[in-house]
Amino acid sequence: MATIETETAPERVEIHAEHHPNLAHHFESMEQQREAGTLGMWWFLLTEIMFFGGMFLAYTVYRHMYFSAFAAGSDVLSIWWGTFNTAVLIGSSLTMALAVFHAQTGNSKKTTLFLLLTIFLGLVFLRVKYIEYSDKFAEHVFPAGAYEWPPHEAPAGPHNVGDLFLMLTGLEASHPAGITQQGMPVKVTTNYAESGPYYGVGGSIPEQIGNPSFGAHVRMFFLLYFAMTGFHALHMIIGIGILFVLAWQAWRKKFSREYHSYIELTGLYWHFVDIVWIFLFALLYLVDRHP
Amino acid sequence: MSSTTTTPADLGAVHTNGQELNYLNNGHGLKSWLLTKDHKRIAILYLLSVSFFFIVGGIFALLIRINLLIPTGVFSPDTYNRLFTAHGVIMVFLFLVPAVPAILGNFLLPIMIGAKDLAFPKINLLSWYLYVVAGIILSIAIFAGGIDTGWTFYTPYSTSYSNSNVLLAGLGVFVAGFSSILTGINFIVTVHTMRAPGMTWFRLPLFVWAHYATALVMMLATPVLAITVSLMAIERVTHVGIFDPAMGGDPVLFQHMFWFYSHPAVYIMVLPAMGVVSELITNLSHKNLFGYKFVVLSTLAIAIFGFLVWGHHLFVSTQSVYLGIAFSILSYAVAIPSAIKVFNWTATLYKGSISYDTPMLYGLGFIGLFLIGGMTGLFVAALGLDVHIHDTYFVVAHFHYVMVGGSLLAFLGGIHLWWGKMTGRQYPEYWARAAMIIQFAGFNLTFFPQFILGYLGMPRRYDSYPPEFQLLHVLSTAGASILGLGLGITIFYLIWSLKNGKRALANPWGAPGLEWRTSSPPPTENFLETPIVTWEAYEFAPIESMEVLGYPGDPGKPTQPVSADHGTED
Q: Dihedral sign, CA of B381, B383, B384, B390?
């Protein structure tokens, strides 16, 4: 029947009666508002997967085409920094999860504390990324400008945990002048053709290091490295910005047991950015390593 | 159940609602518009900005047609390249993609499901601002030097050789993409979480279903475009080959990634239009839509198949022939859900009580032209024939039949159907019918000769041609002028009607949807009370039993027609 009931259901009246101050006018209840926010964030993350997916596709296609060049490029990256940063990010996911937990239980102080810890770990990650990027500039493997292959200098980076902390705090330069003379082995001279044919998907034939376009193909690896980690770092910076606002609001006791969805949503976003890094770490640092 | 407590004052309030508080008079001044979070006002903002870019894109179309009047071309080849690129970029990214969803969808989707607003009103406003920023960036790119790559930005021309504003255009497309991603997320979440009590999934109007499917495509495809143009920009800036074969890149990868967005984007443009047509046909046949569930499923099927057919743009781009066969078969498969829709609309008309008012004329026009556009789509999806007609005017004519004959006509039909709801004033019926017929004639005269031209071998994007093609080109240009005239008349009387149109009734068409059960224009929160839906979609009932919410017993339309213009005198 095309009729319409004009009476309002009793429970609706009740909801309106005790209107939460943070309930937007167009929602009927806090649950509805929270559900909408969560669903929106999940869909947003899906679009993010498609965004990064384009770069993962390009990576897959070119790694398949230029397998040896990608292996050589991967060897120039510092496994120490990559591993350390992975640990830092996984740690930040833990602190983020704890912040969400304390927000759900209504503990403003601990929420603030863990949000600040998450920010700190995020900043450590970016600091390491900064060191890594400067090293790549110094080695002239940044794909634009004064790109050189083989690298201008030997690949830099820590060799043990002590090194790592000295470099992280800036007490020791990651790229001390003259390290090339001190003779750190330049692994990239490995001739992959010597180790026999590569029977990968489609039977790619390894390129010779002497191939004049080999350097151009390594350059594509670095282009993808900078594009993928750069977009990832951009997401980290945006996330840290949001976390600062949330930490401030949590300190001012804006969140409560009933109202904390912004922290939950930022948590989803933060975990997503971490997961993207896990894939980047595996594909860029680990997958082609030849120790 | 019609109540008996109606008072004449209530009736008057709905029928002449000039004094009623509605979304238009709730707040005045520029600030109340530019900072609004009301989805209806944002829809009006979109209407103004999208219409502006439509007119600009239309002027570029006329310039293209002027150039092709004589075989040698009127403008220089370089200018001509910039003209057709400007036309394509503006029409695709600033008109076709946002037109129906951002204007009609924004305005109607929350009302149709009985919600007070979209789930994220601030994000909705943000998406309009992003659209405006994209429009400004693209305008700068087009007017300060131009872009000469075509709207497809094919590499390596766009990255290594073009000396036009490719970077700026890429940035504009990137920003426009984010605007549509945000709209998509808003629609999906709204449909999932904001439906009124009793509004189950299979009671949703088909307009809502169409926008739900569109939003899915927007969210899954647009990010790929964003990263594709980003990589293109990176290649152009750093001169490192991602797509340029001279530097070890793969140009076909660009085409794969570009069409992974741009083919589904075709469905972003046509699915909402199909949603509009479902409403036009059923509301003006005054009859329940034939095969509701089939239309719903075919809508979703088109959205899903749309992701699997991008390779049919690459039949002559060194794509593997086996891949080509698969893409060809899948492209044919899209014809099935599209045909289901056409059959269902036609079956809805059968034994319907049809009013030949302007929205219905647009709906019928859509069915005919979309049929031609869709059938010629099968021609270009055929592997063998495509080699002959690839990149010719046949393809140009094919997608204009779908985009203009389909999306634009549906958009205009929707604008007419809901004009009274949006503005509170009805359009003049006589002028609107005349304009529609002029547009229809002009459209066919413009694009039908292009099918012949293309089949005879006229390539697209060429500024000059052999003299034997001139007759068909002159016919096409003449048609474009008539189409332009028809559209000009529509723009003129729609503006005229804002002051001089008849007052719109709440339910001028006697339609059953929720948007007809609130006043015209609706109040800021859409309904005076939360609706509770107890009827199926398109359940046509005697007009008396369809009340306007908050006005018991008032159907929003007198049982006797008031005038041909579906409104009342002031």
A: positive
Alpha helices in chain A (DSSP H): 10-17, 30-65, 67-76, 79-104, 108-138, 161-168, 179-182, 214-251, 261-280
pLDDT tens per residue, range B291-318: 999 999 999 999 999 999 999 999 998 8
**B545 pLDDT higher than 80:** no
Cis bond before residue B245 (omega within 30° of 0): no
Residue window 511-540, chain B: list those with CB within 8 Å of chain A. Answer: 512, 517, 525, 529-532, 534-535, 539-540
Q: Which of residues 536-565 of B touch A (CB under 8 A)?
A: 539-541, 545-547, 549-550, 552
Q: What is the pLDDT of residues B399-415, one digit of tens each?
A: 999 999 999 999 999 99
Taking the CA atoms of residue A121, residue A125, residue A126 and residue A130 in that order, the dihedral angle to the nearest 10 degrees is: 140
B547/A61 Cβ within 8 A: no
* Cβ-contact B114, B54 below 8 angstroms: no
| Pair B285, B293: CB distance under 8 Å | no
Q: At what angle do helices A67-76 and A214-251 cross, to 10 degrees?
A: 50
Residue B328: name the closest of B342, B308, B302, B300 by CA.
Answer: B308
The mean predicted confidence, pLDDT, of chain A is 82
Q: What is the pTM of this model?
A: 0.90
Cα radius of gyration (chain A): 25
pLDDT in tens, A57-67: 999 999 988 88
What does R_g of chain B's alpha carbons equal in angstroms?
24
DSSP for residue A284: I
As a whole number of Å, the end-to-end CA separation of chain B is 30
What's residue A183's pLDDT?
38
Q: Is A32 close to B224, i.e. CB distance below 8 A?
A: no
What's the whole-number mean pLDDT along residues B217-238? 93
Of A2, A26, A50, the CB nearest to B121: A26
Q: Which residue of B has its CA nearest to A66?
A: B248
Please state the φ and ψ torsions of residue A105, each to the nearest 5 degrees. -95, 5
Spell out a b/e string for A184-193, using b for 16 or more CB atoms within 10 Å of the CB, else e: eeeebebebb
**Burial profile B216-247: b = 16 or more Cβ within 10 angstroms, e = fewer:** bbbbbbbbbbbbbbbbbbbbbebbbbbbbeeb
Instruction: Summarize pLDDT for A95-124 with one digit per residue, the tens.
Output: 999 999 999 999 999 999 999 999 999 999
> Residue A4 phi/psi, 5° resolution?
-140, 135
User: What backbone phi and psi angles, to 5 degrees, belong to B548?
Assistant: -90, 130
CA distances from B74 to B71, B79, B396, B449, B482 (A): 9, 10, 20, 20, 20
CA–CA min distance A47, chain B (Å): 6
The CA distance from A39 to the nearest CA of chain B, in Å, is 6
The single residue listed with the structure tokens 């991967």 is A74
CB atoms within 10 A of CB A182: 8
SS3 label, residue B242: coil
Question: What are B94-111's pLDDT values in tens digits?
Answer: 999 999 999 999 999 999
User: What ipTM is given for this predicted complex?
Assistant: 0.88
The partner residues of A232 in beta bridges, in order of sequence, read none
Are B443 and B368 contacting, i.e. CB atoms less than 8 angstroms apart?
no
Q: What are phi and psi of B323, to 5 degrees?
A: -60, -40
d(CA A197, CA A205) in angstroms, rounded, equals 6
